[in-house]
Design a protein that fits this description.
There is one protein chain. The chain is of the alpha+beta class. About 50% of the residues lie in helices and about 15% in strands. The protein is built from 30 helices and 28 strands. A 7-stranded mixed beta sheet has the order 16-28-27-26-17-24-25, sandwiched between helices. Strands 6-5-7-13-8-11 form a 6-stranded antiparallel beta sheet, with no helix packed on it. Helix 12 runs antiparallel to helix 15 (about 430-450) and helix 18 (about 505-515) crosses helix 19. About 45% of the residues are buried.
Length: about 800
C-alpha cells in the first residue's frame, strides 16, 4: 500500500518554470557554473542561462523545490539571484530603466578611469618612441604608484570576483585577468625592490591591462543595453495601471473609478479607458465608441473602429472616445503578456550549434590556465635556452633580435622574466566572454526585432532548423486564401433516374439550417448567403459533424446530409446517384474554376450541389514566387478534390504534383511525416488550430492568425499579423539571425585559436613577434565588443 501511495505521489508531481534574475555573470564560464549549480539542486529538471539578458529559466518539480531557497543557493555561490515573479511586475519596466541608467553611469565612470590609466601609460611610453622623458610621469616610482592605485581601486572588483571564482572551483574571465595583472605587478615590484636581479619593471602592463579591460567592458555594456532595447520597448507596451469602474451599473457622468495595478484586475471587471490611454487588458467593449491603434499587434497603421461587443487587446492605444471595457483575461494571460513571455523564453532557448561553445566554455578557463603554465615551462626550460638571442624590451610589444645572449642583456633572471611575460599574455588574451555572448546576443536582437513586427520566433533551435529548410507546406483555406469564402452557385439536381423536388432557395435554406450549428468557414459562407437573401433558416436537430467530411441533421422531420461524396456514401446515399453523369460534369466544371463543391442529400436522395469559392490572398502568388526564388519547394495541402486543388496550384504556378488534395485535418500530420521520411526538412504553415497536429509534426511550424493560444503553444513561429508575406520575413530574419550566431561563434573560436598561440610566442623565434600582456588585454576587450556589435547589425535587416 505504501509503495502504491508513493507511486501516486510521483505521478501527481508536476513541473513548472520559473525565471531567475541572476547577477555576477561575467563570461561563458560563469554561465556554465550557474547552470551546474541549478541542475545539481534536488528537484530541478533543467536550467538554461542567458548571459546577455542575465536570466535563468529553471524547470522544477512543484512541491519539491523551494524557489527562494534555490535563489539563495545561487546568491551564496557568488551569483546574486531572485525569482522574477517576486519582483513587483507593475514596476518592472521602470526598475529596468533605472538599472540601465545606473549601469551606464557606472560604465561612464569606468570609461573615465580607463581613459586616465591609458593616458598616463601612453605618456610614460613616449620615452620608448621619442626618447623624451616627461618629468615625474617618467619616474619609475610614479608608475609603481599608478599601478598600485589601478589594482586597489578599479581593479579590486575584478580581483575579488576572480578569487571567488577560484574558491568555488569555477574560475572565470576575471580569474584570468586577475592572475595576469597580479603576476605582472608582483614581478615588477620584485624587480624594483631587488635591482641586482637585472629584471626590468613593467608596471605599465597591469595599468594598461586594466585600462583596456575597463574600456572593453564599458563598450560591451553599452552595446548589450542597446541590444536589449528592442525587448525593453516591447515590455514598455504593457500598461501598468487600470481605471477600475467601481459600480458598472452606473454609466454616463456618474461613473466612479479607482486606479489599481493592472495585474490586480479580475476577469469580468469593468474598466474605463480614456482617449490617449493604452487599453490595460484584453477585453470586450461594453459601452462607448472609439478608434483604436492596433499597430503594435497587427502592424496596420490605420485605426480600427470599436463599438460595444468588439474585442480589444492590452497595449493597444485608445484614440478618440471614452469606452468601458469588460476584462476577458487577466494581465498575465493577455495576448501581449504571452508575446512577452514567448520572446523572453525564446532568448534562453539555445541553438544546437551553441552546444559546442557551451562544452568548450565549461573547461575554457582551466584550459587557458594550463596553456599559460605550459607556456611558462616551455620558455623557461627550453625556449630561452634554444633561442638565446631573443629579448622582450619594455612594456609594449617591442620585440627584436638583439644578437646578444639573454644573460648579457637583461641579467641571469631574464629567462624567467620572458617566460612569465608570455604566460601572462596567454592568460589575458583568452576571452571566454566572446564565446558566452556569441549566441544569446544574436538571439536577443533577432527575436526582439521580430516581436516588434509581430513575428514570434521561439528560440535558437528554431533558427537553426529554418536554416536547413528545403520544403514549405501550406494549408489552403485561411492561409493562402482569404479565409472568407462566398457561395457562388447553388442548384438542384434532377436527372438520370432521380428527381429533385427542391428549388434553389430550398436547397440553400436546408444547407444553412444544418451548417448554422458549425463554425467552419465554408459553413459560415452558406449561412451568410442565406441571410443575405432574407431566407428563413429553420432549426436543426440531431446535428452531427465529421471534420473534413461533412455534417448531418434533421430539419423539419427530414434528414439532411451535407458534405463530400464519401460522406454521402457513408450516410446511405446510393453511389449510382452520386456518380451520375450530369452531376459529375457539373461538379467537375465548378471544381475546375477552383471552387469547392458540396453535395446535399435529403432523406437519402441527392437534392443538389453548392459551390463555394475562397479567393487567393492578393499577395499569395508573389509570396510563393519569393519562396521559390529562395530555393524552397512549395507544396499545397487541401481537403478539396484534386481538380480544385490543381486550379489553385495553377494560379500559384505550382507543379500539380505539389498540390495534395483530399487531405483530412487529422491526416495532414501524416503527409508531413512522409515528407520527412524522404529526408526533407519541412515547414508547415497553417492557421494554428485545425492544423495543430501538422504544425507540431513539422520541423518548423508557422502559425498564421492573431495569436491564439493553440497557435502559440504548437507553432515554432507565430505570425501575429494576418499577413502572408510575413512568412518570408520570418524565414529571412531567422536565417539572418542564425548567420550572425555562426559569425559570432566563428570569430570567438578563431580569436582564441589564433590569439593564444601568438601570445605564447609561436612567432617569436622566427619573426620576433609576440603579443605583450597589454596588447593581449586590448584584443580581449575588443573581441567581446565585436561579437555584440556584430549582433546589433541585425537591425539593418528591417
Amino acid at each position: 500500500m505504501q509503495t502504491i501511495q508513493q507511486n501516486n505521489a510521483i505521478e501527481q508531481t508536476t513541473t513548472e518554470k520559473i525565471t531567475l534574475d541572476v547577477g555576477g555573470m561575467k563570461c561563458a564560464g560563469c554561465v556554465t557554473a550557474v547552470e551546474k549549480q541549478l541542475v545539481q539542486y534536488p528537484g530541478v529538471d533543467s536550467a538554461c542561462v542567458n548571459l546577455a539578458t542575465e536570466v535563468a529559466v529553471v524547470e522544477y518539480s512543484v512541491g519539491v523545490v523551494d524557489v527562494n531557497e534555490l535563489a539563495k543557493v545561487l546568491t551564496d555561490a557568488g551569483f546574486p539571484s531572485q525569482p522574477r515573479n517576486h519582483v513587483n511586475k507593475s514596476n518592472s519596466v521602470k526598475n529596468t530603466e533605472i538599472k540601465h541608467r545606473q549601469e551606464m553611469q557606472s560604465a561612464f565612470k569606468q570609461l573615465l578611469i580607463a581613459g586616465t590609466l591609458l593616458l598616463f601609460s601612453f605618456i610614460g611610453h613616449l620615452e620608448h618612441f621619442t626618447g623624451f622623458t616627461v618629468p615625474i610621469i617618467g619616474n619609475i616610482w610614479f608608475h609603481f604608484g599608478l599601478a598600485t592605485i589601478a589594482i586597489l581601486v578599479p581593479g579590486r572588483p575584478i580581483l575579488v570576483d576572480g578569487w571567488r571564482g577560484l574558491q568555488r572551483n569555477a574560475p572565470n574571465m576575471n580569474t584570468l585577468v586577475g592572475l595576469g595583472t597580479l603576476s605582472a605587478y608582483t614581478t615588477s615590484v620584485v624587480a624594483l625592490v631587488f635591482p641586482n636581479l637585472g629584471w626590468e619593471c613593467f608596471f605599465d602592463e597591469p595599468v594598461m591591462m586594466l585600462g583596456f579591460i575597463l574600456l572593453g567592458r564599458t563598450l560591451e555594456k553599452r552595446t548589450r543595453n542597446k541590444a536589449a532595447s528592442a525587448f525593453q520597448k516591447l515590455l514598455s507596451l504593457q500598461p501598468v495601471t487600470a481605471r477600475l469602474i467601481a459600480n458598472p451599473q452606473k454609466q454616463g457622468t456618474d461613473i466612479s473609478t479607482v486606479n489599481i495595478p493592472a495585474e490586480q484586475v479580475k476577469v469580468g471587471e469593468w474598466l474605463q479607458v480614456l482617449p490617449g490611454e493604452k487599453i490595460p487588458l484584453d477585453g470586450e467593449v461594453v459601452d462607448g465608441q472609439t478608434t483604436v491603434d492596433e499597430s503594435m499587434l497587427t502592424g496596420e497603421s490605420v485605426a480600427v473602429v470599436k463599438n460595444a461587443g468588439n474585442k480589444v487587446s492590452a497595449g493597444t492605444l485608445n484614440q478618440s472616445g471614452v469606452i468601458s471595457v469588460c476584462a476577458t483575461r487577466t494581465a498575465s494571460e493577455t495576448t501581449l503578456a504571452q508575446i512577452v513571455k514567448l520572446v523572453e523564453t525564446a532568448q534562453t532557448r539555445k541553438a544546437p550549434v551553441q552546444k559546442l561553445a557551451d562544452t568548450v566554455s565549461g573547461y575554457f578557463t582551466y584550459g587557458v590556465l594550463t596553456a599559460a603554465l605550459l607556456t611558462f615551462l616551455f620558455w623557461y626550460f627550453i625556449g630561452t635556452h634554444i633561442w638565446q638571442d631573443i629579448s622582450i624590451s619594455g612594456g609594449m610589444d617591442m620585440l627584436h633580435h638583439t644578437g646578444t645572449k639573454i644573460s648579457q642583456d637583461l641579467g641571469v633572471g631574464s629567462g624567467l622574466l620572458i617566460s612569465l611575460k608570455l604566460a601572462i599574455a596567454v592568460m589575458v588574451v583568452a576571452c571566454p566572454c566572446a564565446l558566452g555572448l556569441a549566441t544569446p546576443t544574436a538571439i536577443l536582437v533577432g527575436t526582439a526585432l521580430a516581436a516588434e513586427r509581430g513575428l514570434l520566433i521561439k528560440g535558437g533551435d528554431v533558427l537553426e532548423k529554418i536554416h536547413q529548410l528545403d520544403t514549405i507546406v501550406f494549408d489552403k483555406t485561411g492561409t493562402l486564401t482569404t479565409g472568407q469564402p462566398i457561395v457562388t452557385d447553388w442548384m438542384p439536381i434532377a436527372s438520370e433516374g432521380f428527381d429533385s423536388n427542391y428549388s434553389s432557395s430550398q436547397i440553400l435554406t436546408l444547407a444553412a439550417a444544418v451548417e448554422k450549428g458549425t463554425t467552419h468557414p465554408l459553413a459560415n459562407a452558406i449561412v451568410e448567403s442565406a441571410v443575405q437573401k432574407n431566407l428563413t433558416i429553420p432549426t436543426v436537430q440531431d446535428l452531427h459533424t465529421e471534420a473534413g467530411l461533412g455534417v448531418s441533421g434533421t430539419v423539419g422531420g427530414q434528414t439532411v446530409v451535407l458534405g463530400n461524396k464519401d460522406w454521402l456514401f457513408w450516410q446511405g446515399v446510393p453511389k449510382e446517384q452520386a456518380n451520375n453523369q450530369t452531376l459529375n460534369k457539373q461538379a467537375q466544371n465548378l471544381a475546375a474554376e477552383g471552387k469547392t463543391v458540396i453535395y446535399i442529400a435529403v432523406d437519402g436522395t441527392i437534392a443538389g450541389i453548392i459551390a463555394i469559392a475562397d479567393t487567393l490572398r492578393p499577395d499569395a502568388k508573389s509570396l510563393v514566387k519569393q519562396l521559390q526564388d529562395m530555393g524552397l519547394r512549395i507544396m499545397l495541402l487541401s481537403g478539396d478534390t484534386q481538380i480544385a486543388a490543381n486550379a489553385i496550384a495553377s494560379q500559384l504556378n505550382l507543379d500539380p504534383k505539389d498540390a495534395i488534395a483530399g487531405v483530412l485535418p487529422a491526416k495532414k500530420a501524416t503527409v508531413i511525416k512522409s515528407l520527412q521520411q524522404d529526408k526533407k526538412v519541412v515547414a508547415m504553415v497553417g492557421d494554428g488550430i485545425n492544423d495543430a497536429p501538422a504544425l507540431s509534426q513539422a520541423d518548423v511550424g508557422i502559425a498564421m492568425g492573431s495569436g491564439t493560444d493553440v497557435a502559440m503553444e504548437t507553432a515554432d513561429i507565430v505570425l501575429m499579423r494576418d499577413c502572408i508575406t510575413d512568412v518570408v520575413d520570418s524565414i529571412q530574419l531567422s536565417k539572418a539571425t542564425f548567420n550572425k550566431i555562426r559569425q559570432n561563434l566563428f570569430w570567438a573560436f578563431a580569436y582564441n585559436t589564433l590569439g593564444v598561440p601568438l601570445a605564447a610566442g609561436i612567432l617569436l623565434p622566427s619573426l620576433g613577434f609576440v603579443l605583450s600582456p597589454a596588447t593581449a588585454a586590448g584584443l580581449m576587450a575588443f573581441s567581446s565588443v565585436s561579437v555584440v556589435t556584430n549582433s546589433l547589425l541585425l537591425r539593418r535587416f528591417f
